[in-house]
Structures are given as structure tokens and as C-alpha cells.
Amino acid sequence: MICAQSPVGPLGADAADGAVTALVWGKAGSLTGGPLHRQLSDELAAYFAGALKEFTVPLAPRGNLFQQAFYAALSEIPYGETRTYGDLAKDLGVSAQAIGQACGANPIAILIPCHRVLGASGLGGYSGMGGVEAKVALLKLEGAAGLLI
After folding, report:
1. What is the tens place of the pLDDT at every residue in 27-51?
2. What DSSP line would sit under the chain, residue for residue?
3. Domains along the chain?
4. 91-143, pLDDT tens digit by residue?
5. Distance CA 74, CA 1 (A)
6. In this protein, which residues make up the domain named Methylated-DNA-[protein]-cysteine S-methyltransferase DNA binding (predicted)?
7. Fewer CB under 10 Å: which end of the chain, C or N?
8. How do strand 4-6 and strand 117-118 relate by DSSP bridges?
9. Which entry of 11, 114, 118, 144 is annotated as an active-site residue?
């Protein structure tokens, strides 16, 4: 069962041990019902309606120590704000390229907001379905569109 119909397409999710492990673009994932599915569906609907700025659904992205630190840093970027790949690279002591690769491998995009990370002189990429257009749509939803001009 799809968790949300959204401006960036249908979204499903995978879960394990009571937490979301991946957001699935364009189809249903393994999370097909129950309290976690309801919470995620409700929070996504509220987010896309502009009424939710911070997700509380339990998340459990898989990854090594660097990836976990990266997910935590992404999650600290406030709604409607952005950082650059270079900003995060400096904070985490890695290259901007490593940040870009980690953004591309983020299994829980939107909930762990990699769309809020921009290049020093442009948007950068986006691994979610719809690519950069989806990134722009999410930034516009959050009121960060002024940053795109």
C-alpha cells in the first residue's frame, strides 16, 4: 500500500523493527499497514500540505559510522533552510564529493532531508524520483525557493 500520493509522485516505505528503513519512490514498499504505516502516511500528508516541519516517525537508515553521522547532520538542517555540500563536508571532516555520494545513497530521502543540500554554485543533484525537479518542488514547498534564484 502506498503511504502517500505526493507532488513528487507516489511514495511507499520499507520498515524493520518498528522503524522506517527506506522511502520507496513510485510504488509500495514492505510497510503496508499498521500503526507505523498510519503515522508515516499522516506525517507525509501533513508535510505535503505545509502543516508539518519535522518528522517524528521512527527512522532506522542502514549505514556505516560516516553515513550515520551524515544522516544526523542532514536531520539537523531546519525546514526551509539549506546547506552546501561544502558546509557539511567541513562539519564532518570529509570531501564535498563524499557528501554528494552520501546524499545520493540516502535511503530515506525527504524524511532525512538531502533535498536541503545544494552545490556551492547551483542545485546539485537529487536521487529521488524526478531528480532535480523533485528537489526544486520540495524546496518550493518549504519556502526555500528564493534560494534557487
Report:
1. 889 999 999 999 999 999 999 999 9
2. --SEEETTEEEEEEEETTEEEEEEESS--S--SHHHHHHHHHHHHHHHTT--SS--S-B-----HHHHHHHHHHHTSPTT--EEHHHHHHHHTS-HHHHHHHHHT-TTTTTS-GGGEEBTTB-----STTHHHHHHHHHHHTT-GGGG-
3. 4-48 (no CATH), 65-148 (1.10.10.10)
4. 999 998 999 899 989 999 999 999 999 887 777 777 777 778 888 889 999 98
5. 28
6. 66-144
7. C
8. unpaired
9. 114
Question: Which one-letter amino acid corresponds to residue 122?
Answer: G
Active site residue 114: yes
